[in-house]
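Incident log, structure service

09:12 report received: a user says their structure output differs between two submissions of the same chain.
09:20 pulled the input from the user's history:
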Amino acid sequence: MARFGNLVVFPIFMALLFLPFGSSEISGHGWELAHATFYGDMEGNETMQGACGYGDLNQQGYGLNTTALSTALFDNGGTCGACYEIQCVNSTQWCIHGAGTITVTATNFCPPNYTKTVDIWCNPPQKHFDLSMPMFLKIAEYKAGIVPVAYRRVNCYKKGGINFELKGNPWWLLVLVYNVGGVGQVIDVKIKGSNTDWVQMTRNWGQNWQTGEQLEGQSLSFQVTTSDGRMVQSDDVAPANWQFNSTYVGKNF
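09:34 re-ran on a clean worker, output below:
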């Protein structure tokens, strides 16, 4: 998390009074209040990997348009892949005038620190975004370190299909599901071998889903359900000779 030195944080009721939203206001538009910091540098190396299970975010299509979420938003990894629109508010000193909004994907976790009594932005029940440095600098000045923001969930717009990265061994299959469009937040995954019925997968961590079904030598199909209840089915995504440590592309929302 960014270092933010001595900073006076306005109470929430002040933020509600002075949000500089222009034509967009919180009321009736799904906006909520939070704070944002940044981590890493302009190269974004520190944002790679992370608690959602993703790898090289540049190769996987997320780039540096990403954020880590506090405990209150992370939902034990259930929110990984969700997209947020964020705007710096209530700070004429630190918000960049006319910057508008940024859209980021949740790819990491901002862990709580229960040994601290100040600067505890990622501790429950705080709603907090730890942005990549390039994203933070689009809406706020570097010296601010932390700024009040308004945010709302938005749809994710991804290029290409949903990616299924297969890992594991003959007795245990782990599938990383990424580049998900629509609401982005995957809540259920099922897999089907060419010789099986649909098999319920369970979340291992982040957006890694697992099964103990032995599926080698069978073509693989997937059903992916997102938090809005929509489901997309990709048939025979992986051929019968699929390999571990390989990625296969299906349909998207």
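09:41 both user submissions now match this output. Likely a transient worker issue. Closing.
09:42 reviewer note: The longest helix spans residues 12-18. Residues 2-28 have pLDDT under 50 and may be disordered.
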